[in-house]
């Protein structure tokens, strides 16, 4: 039988605002580079693409948009980068992703609109490349407040963040099978968090022979199609 080709690992870092996510992503990327591992950093939303520029304007409150439309644009932003992510993985490069589909679902479903159920918010991202491991940085409201005020962009307020966290918890239960989703205590010093993240990704950073999976690819076809329309 032909030998199975090694590919890069797909690692996603998720978290609420003030969880230290951006800092930890940078530290993990540097550690991979220092170890001589080929690595690529992807941040969502990618505000450099035509779709990303629309999202950027919305997040800065420079423009208004229907909640359904902006949700679909966030998903489209992930889909337009999906081919290059797959190409990097197949080339043996580890991809570290700062936010992914899970953030898109969490922030939209947290708006509590009747026409934006969890299932509706999930539907556009079905069959995107699935991470090999997702690390969710879990920060308490007390620690988030201690780290300073929220920024000026939409969604950066304590009430919204609390609702978003509840949706993340649901995603963790749905995705987590003991190996693909890990909640990490982000209340600790950044060095301690960084060490746990590095320990968690050790089985993956040197590559894997496992075929790349797709998000929610095992959902029944009727379930996948029943929530696509408002």
From TrEMBL:
One of its GO terms (cellular component) is cytosol. Pathway: Pyrimidine metabolism; dTTP biosynthesis. One of its GO terms (molecular function) is nucleoside diphosphate kinase activity. Its EC number is 2.7.4.9. Residues 13-196 form the Thymidylate kinase-like domain. One of its GO terms (biological process) is dTDP biosynthetic process. Keywords: ATP-binding, Kinase, Nucleotide biosynthesis, Nucleotide-binding, Transferase. It comes from the Eukaryota. Coiled coil: none annotated. It holds the Pfam family Thymidylate_kin. Belongs to the thymidylate kinase family. This is Thymidylate kinase. It comes from Pycnoporus cinnabarinus (Cinnabar-red polypore).
